[in-house]
Every structure is written in C-alpha cells, then in structure tokens.
Amino acid sequence: MARRDELGTPRGTPGGPQVDPDLFGRLSEQLARFLGTGRYLAMQTVLVVVWIGLNLAAVSLRWDPYPFILLNLAFSTQAAYAAPLILLAQNRQADREREEIERDRAMNARSLADTDFLAREMAAIRVALEQKADRDDLADAVARLSATVERLFDRDRRYP
Asked: What residue numbers bound the domain in which 101 lies?
C-alpha cells in the first residue's frame, strides 16, 4: 500500500525548490539590452585597449603575447553566449508583439461589431422617422376631418 502512495505523488511537489520559468528569459532580455548600449561598447573598448597595452608594454606582465589568443578566446566565448541570449530575447519580444497583435485584432473586431450594430440602429431610426407623420400629413388629415365634420353639420341642418 505504501508503494501506491509513492507512485500517486508526482515528483517535484511542495517542498522542492520553486523556480520562476520566465526568470532566465527576463535575465537574457536584460543582458541583451545591456549588450546593445554605448556604455557596454565603451567599457569593452577600454578593456581591449588596456589588455593590449599591458601585454605590449609590460614585458614582465605578458600573460597573452602578441597574437592575443586569450583575448580572442574571451571574445569568442562571449559571442557564443551572447548570440543565443539575444535570440532568446528577440523571440520573447516577438511573442509579446504577437500577443499584442491578437489583442488589437480582437479589439478591432469588437469595434467593428459595435459599429455595425450602431449603423443598423441608425438605419432603423431613419426608417421609423420616414414613417412618422409630419406637419403636411397632419394638415391633410385635419382638412379631411374638417370637411367631414362640415358635411355632417350641413346634413344635420338640412334634416333636423
């Protein structure tokens, strides 16, 4: 019976470490934003100038002689990690833009439906106003009614 209880409980349930699934994505976006700044380019340029200057000038401190293979290796490693992180950040941005486009599309559909409804309501109001009696219609009806009343009075006067 104890065996069933172990199998019925999935691994990683409460008690284990909780990791935010978007943490790595947010960190990659922050890093991509930093790598695209002038501050980063200035810092990297200063680092390269200092590196090359120390390796050329200080004979006793040369840890990376002239072809600067170690510096090249550092830049290659940086590029190997930076490129996928930048792509991840771009993918996340594309996902956000896709969701925003879907929200805009849904809002546009609602606006179109509201506009269609209002157009139909305005058309119904116009039709109702066209069927409404105006001043001329009332004047004609009053004139006919007056004529009918006069005929009735005339008839009553002739046949008392």
From this structure: 22-119
0.70 exceeded by pTM? no
Q: 54 is written with which tokens?
A: 């120390």
Rg (alpha carbons) of the chain, rounded to whole number: 43
Q: Nearest to residue 35, comparing CAs of 106, 103, 87?
A: 87
Instruction: Name the residue among 16, 15, 25 with its Cα closest to residue 95.
Output: 25
- The number of residues in the chain equals 160
pLDDT profile of the chain (160 residues), mean per 10: 59 66 83 87 92 81 82 90 87 92 96 94 88 80 88 78
CB 65 within 8 A of CB 55: yes
What is the number of structural domains in the chain? 1
Look at residue 34 and tell me if it is in a domain. Answer: yes
